[in-house]
Specification:
With about 775 residues, the protein is of the alpha+beta class.
Length: about 775
């Protein structure tokens, strides 16, 4: 359960093992090493003196985050009062616990935002009729139905979409959030979260008395385990997934293959009008569905499978199993019956695929080929050839890999046959004489029925041990003798180690408790002034071109924008626009007339009363570009053809004569083997997900600028600020309390700190800060009073 809830979390510097160990130590079923004495080794009062092998081995493992957490409990209890432990409860607003307020929250809600942010109007209706009426009333002006905000949130935050009306259905509306099994159907409310659906399916699977419900719920449950991450499934709803109509959705092929039926509802003269449509007929094209303007999906009804001789299986292939979109996904259903020729024949079959067309599709030709045929490997072999012709994709298909995707689809079909053959054996059970002979499956092929989707997720594992003992004689051998050559050095050392000797024992990081309790303060936690200004960088939107002009006047017309600054303002200061850690080969703000090096290159900055206004102002800035002749250089081969070489380097590492060494046939009496070739590593997007904050505090003292930054290179930051703002370096102080990331690559982010600091000279008190976040970079300033 814990492992499922940790998926979707990224950590590059701390690492997953210590995070997992720390979380696992809080679980009641945590496994510990237990010795012959019956006492867990890490709880033994004589742990430091015990020489049993189990204790020695356990102490030799560095993967001891759990030990650190347990050991620190005493420190926590001594350090903090009872009030500190009650913070989570004490900090929760008591007003929200009032029953009267709870009743108010279940009533219809309307929130209007008439500020510069253009937030529009937010409705929360409490009945289905009110919901449909609102959609009909506001549809022409543009309305969005919001449940989990996993799709609309991306559109508004990253695509800057503005919707005048947003509607969130109340949980009190009957049926929209429910998952139930009336009659012979599994009925899923359109607003039901994927997690609630997964949980309900898990409960149905566990009920052996309801075989049909368990059989229907299992493939849905198994596919949802690999659908996005737990955080997304907790809020995303099944209706939103259907309406989004992604061609690589995992659930849409599943529901289509299981003969799911959608109930669509709309407002019609004071009543709720409903109609039904098959999930397989719902998708009409890329990101388009057969739903009328004022309609919503009310629920999805999935017929329960037969208790025997009907099978469903999900399939998915992605570049990694968790938290990744599918390359090809599929849902397949098959039912068999005994034909008049005393053979197993295919009574009905559904083959739904995603990732092989602009939308979820049924392989109609392949389904027609198999229907009525004998359930055998020969039939599926013929169906494979039909499927390859039916799903064949052009070489330039969006997403690429047409042959691979076609191979995946064919592989899924064969795996489905193997799966159904195995399930048929189980259904026939101990009565083979009552039924026709079962299809023959070779032993070496039967393992192909297994797949990761239905298998248990492997448990998180990981240990870190002390290194192997040194081969050369040293201090260790002098102290412990030759025994260290046959046993781990740490294990040998632990036997004779006193309680006071801390060498080799796990120790809590000095700031670890503060990080775990949330008390660690970063640059962005420093209290800000009431007159704080926020900033957003003006970024280039086109590369392989020349910046012809930049017009900030549209931004200045927006209420709340305090200013906009470009390269020209640096010139007015007498500052140096060039910067770089070694060579001055970069610029703070790109100058008009210069070549744009990449999309996202900084052109200037807009500052405003709020972050939202600043970002709106930055997007309002008008820029023009002129394309350069020739092709953009995006590879080494392109650079060679363009005669573009890096010639300004100064550092070389040279040892011996390489050319002479390669001519030799032997080196030190050993045959010399020359291995040569080329290696390619595709550039991967891996920008830092955590914020990287900088705060600049001005004063009128000799040190007129103090910068609080999350940096590993304070000197470089000081140099950049002094150079660009034409300020003596002695009057710039950089302080670094703690870093957000331990990666060496964060050095390069220091250059992002410079542009807002340029503004220190544009306002009276020269105060600025920066928060670098993905995918934008935002800054914040203190306004002069």
């Amino acid at each position: 359960h814990l492992e499922e809830h940790l998926d979707g979390n990224l950590c590059r510097c701390t690492g997953y093992r210590p995070i997992w160990d720390a979380a696992r130590s809080l679980c009641g079923d945590v496994e510990e090493t237990v010795g012959p004495c019956g006492t867990p080794c890490r709880q033994c009062p004589e742990r430091e003196d015990c020489t049993m092998d189990c204790n020695v081995r356990d102490k030799a493992v560095c993967s001891s985050t759990a030990s650190k957490v347990n050991a620190y409990q005493t420190v926590l209890r001594e350090k903090h009062s009872d009030d500190w432990w009650k913070q989570p409860t004490a900090m929760f607003p008591t007003e929200l616990l009032d029953e009267g307020l709870q009743n108010q929250l279940t009533k219809p809600l309307k929130v209007c935002d008439d500020s510069i942010h253009n937030g529009g109007t937010w409705y929360q209706p409490t009945s289905l009729l009110d919901l449909l009426s609102l959609i009909e009333t506001h549809n022409e002006a543009g309305v969005k139905l919001v449940v989990g905000n996993t799709e609309v949130g991306i559109e508004t935050k990253f695509k800057h979409a503005i919707y005048s009306t947003m509607i969130h259905p109340s949980r009190s509306i009957p049926g929209l959030y429910d998952v139930s099994t009336p009659d012979d159907f599994l009925v899923i409310g359109s607003c039901a979260s994927l997690s609630s659906l997964q949980s309900t399916c898990h409960q149905l699977m566990s009920d052996e008395s309801e075989a049909r419900k368990a059989k229907t719920a299992r493939p849905i449950h198994d596919m949802l385990r690999w659908f996005a991450s737990t955080q997304i499934r907790n809020v995303a709803c099944i209706g939103g997934n259907l309406v989004t109509a992604s061609p690589i959705s995992d659930m849409n092929p599943m529901l289509a293959s299981m003969r799911g039926v959608l109930t669509l509802a709309k407002h019609d003269r004071g009543e709720v009008a409903r109609r039904q449509i098959n999930v397989s007929d719902f998708f009409t094209g890329y990101r388009s569905v057969a739903m009328h303007t004022n309609e919503i999906i009310e629920c999805v009804s999935v017929p329960l499978l037969r208790d025997r001789f009907e099978y469903v299986s999900p399939f998915k292939q992605a570049r990694r199993r968790e938290d990744d979109i599918s390359i090809v996904t599929a849902g397949m259903r098959l039912s068999v019956t005994v034909s008049c020729g005393n053979k197993w024949s295919i009574d009905s079959i559904s083959l739904a695929f995603g990732g092989v067309a602009p939308t979820t599709i049924l392989a109609q030709e392949t389904m027609a080929y198999l229907t009525g045929r004998e359930f055998s490997e020969a039939s599926f072999d013929g169906a494979r050839r039909v499927l390859q012709d039916e799903l064949r994709m052009p070489d330039d298909v969006p997403g690429g890999q047409p042959q691979y995707r076609l191979t995946l689809a064919s592989s899924f079909l064969y795996k489905f046959f193997l799966y159904c053959a195995g399930e048929l054996v189980k259904d026939v059970g101990d009565s083979p004489g009552k039924y026709p002979p079962l299809p023959v499956v070779e032993d070496e092929a039967s393992s192909g029925a297994a797949g990761f989707i239905s298998a248990a997720k492997p448990s998180i594992t990981g240990t870190q041990t002390y290194p192997e003992p040194m081969v050369a004689a040293g201090l260790e051998s002098e102290k412990y003798g030759d025994v260290i050559r046959s046993k781990p050095m740490a294990a040998v050392a632990a036997k004779g180690q006193s309680k006071e000797d801390l060498v080799g024992k796990p120790a809590t990081h000095a700031s670890g408790p503060l990080h775990c309790t949330g008390e660690a303060l970063y640059a962005d936690d420093i209290p800000s002034s009431d007159s704080l200004l926020h900033g957003s960088l003006i970024l280039a939107t086109q590369c392989h071109s020349t910046l012809e002009s930049i017009d900030v006047s549209p931004a200045l017309q927006i209420p709340g924008v305090a200013g906009a600054f470009t390269h020209e303002d640096i010139i007015k200061l007498g500052g140096d626009n060039r910067m770089g850690p070694i060579l001055l080969d970069d610029v703070a703000f790109l100058q008009v007339g210069e070549q744009v090096g990449f999309v996202g290159q900084v052109l200037g900055i807009v500052v405003a009363d709020s972050q939202e206004i600043a970002e709106k102002g930055a997007r309002a800035v008008s820029t023009t570009y002129s394309e350069l002749d020739g092709n953009a250089i995006v590879s080494i081969e392109d650079a060679i053809l363009a005669n573009s070489f890096w010639t300004d380097f100064r550092h070389t590492i040279q040892r011996g004569d390489v050319d002479d060494a390669l001519k030799q046939s032997e080196v030190d009496g050993k045959k010399l083997v020359v291995v040569e070739g080329s290696f390619r590593s595709g550039g991967q997007e891996h920008f830092y997900l955590e914020p990287n904050s900088t705060l600049a505090v001005p004063s009128e003292s000799a040190t007129n600028l103090t910068i609080y930054a999350s940096t590993q290179a304070p000197t470089k930051t000081q140099d950049f600020v002094a150079r660009v703002t034409n300020t003596p370096a002695a009057r710039v102080v950089v302080r670094m309390k703690r870093m957000v990331s331990g990666s060496r690559d964060t050095d390069g982010l220091d250059e992002l700190d410079v542009p807002p600091k340029i503004l220190l000279s544009f306002i009276d008190v020269r105060g600025a800060g920066l928060v670098a976040k993905r995918p934008e970079v935002s800054s914040r300033l203190w306004r002069a009073r």
